Amino acid sequence: MQPMNARETLIEQPWQAIKKQRLFRDRFLRRFVVVAVLLFILEWLLLGFQLRPTGFVVPFEYTSGAEFRLGEWWRIFGYGLFSLLVTVGNIVLAAMSFEKSRIASFFLVLSAVILNIFTIVITYTLLAQVG
Questions:
Q1: How many CA atoms lie within 13 A of 33 on its CB side?
Q2: Under the phi-then-psi rule, with left for phi > 0, alpha for psi from -120 to 50, and beta for the rest, what region is 66?
Q3: Is residue 71 helix, strand or coil?
């Protein structure tokens, strides 16, 4: 048995494990997973290119009293972190539950897509208030 190099360990083995998951062999669900990941990447690009450090407080949360809560500029990244956790979590749960219930997997991935759309809208709104 030959020793594995870093490329095999870090890239090829996890990629092979992902390709073996039945969720990623289903064309219909795979498209929704791709859309969820692309929306997540779009949100982080929006944050990366539009959000700049400021010396003043910025709105980071909209309250029910029709007001914005103010805080440091970096707190807006919390929406991106939330989107990351939910997207990855839902895709992992969808892959785990695919064998038992394809419809549950579909709703998990669909909810990641919907959440990413809402998070992009919220992030864009908050960034418009900063700019």
A1: 21
A2: left
A3: strand
Residue 62, classed as helix, strand or coil, is: strand
Structure tokens at 15: 């990629």
Question: What was the pLDDT predicted at 85?
Answer: 94
3-state secondary structure of 107: helix
Owner of token pair 């870093």: 6
Q: Taking the model in full, what pTM does it have?
A: 0.77
Dihedral over alpha carbons 12, 22, 28, 11 (to 10 degrees): -10
Neighbours of 94 (CB within 10 A): 27
**Which amino acid belongs to residue 28?**
F
Tens-digit pLDDT profile for residues 55-102: 767 776 767 666 767 777 777 888 889 999 999 999 888 888 888 888
Q: What is the Rg, in whole angstroms, of the alpha carbon atoms belonging to the chain?
A: 19
pLDDT band at 14 (very low <50, low <70, confident <90, very high): low
Strand bridging mode 58-62 / 68-71: antiparallel
